[in-house]
Amino acid sequence: MPGYVWIPFIVIGVLLVLLLVVAVLGRVRNGRYLRPVVVLLARIPFMKRWFQRMSVSQLERSNPELASAVKKMQAFGEPTSPDQVQRALRVLTPAERKAYMDAAGSDAPAVEPTNRQQRRRLEHGGAGMPVKSSAASSRPGAAGRKTGGKKKKR
């Protein structure tokens, strides 16, 4: 038998092995090792469109309002200023806007303070304990000075 007869079998075998590798990477640690592969493949324009289409179709099954909002936001383009964001959000219906804002808000990790120091840091804007303001400390360079005259030696 000539060698060119085996080419279709080799191509199908390689595709099956790649499909198996993708399936295994998707199962291990909730797809942790598959994400870099998808990011790398998303650099190819047709693959990026394919991944976006798959993502939107999955959203349509689970959350139709969010899927509609995502489609409209993609059609609007990437907003670069707060005004463009407001115009893009005005295009959405109230239900779509709520679904989109819920999804956007869920991406930000909630900070749970575990101890007193972290709670205080959050309460005071990350600066720690606030400094007491007094007349002496409001002048520059007066923070370490004591009031009164020089000490006399005995």
Describe the structure.
The protein is mostly helical and 154 residues long. It is 62% helix and 0% strand. The protein has helices at residues 7-27, 35-41, 45-62, 64-76, 82-91, 94-107, 116-123, 135-138. The N and C termini lie far apart (114 Å).
Describe this protein with a few key phrases:
mainly alpha, 8 helices, single chain
Q: How would you sum up this structure in a few lines?
A:
This protein has eight helices and no strands.
How are helices and strands ordered from N to C? Answer: HHHHHHHH
Helix content: 55-70%
Q: Assembly state here?
A: single chain
Number of strands: 0
Number of helices: 8
Q: Roughly what is the average pLDDT, rounded to an integer?
A: 79
- Determine the structural class based on helices, strands and strand pairing: mainly alpha
Radius of gyration based on Cα positions: 30 Å
Terminal CA distance reads: 114 Å
Strand content: under 5%
Taking pLDDT < 50 over at least 5 consecutive residues as the criterion, the unreliable ranges are: none
The shape, in one word, is extended
For the biggest sheet, the summary is: none
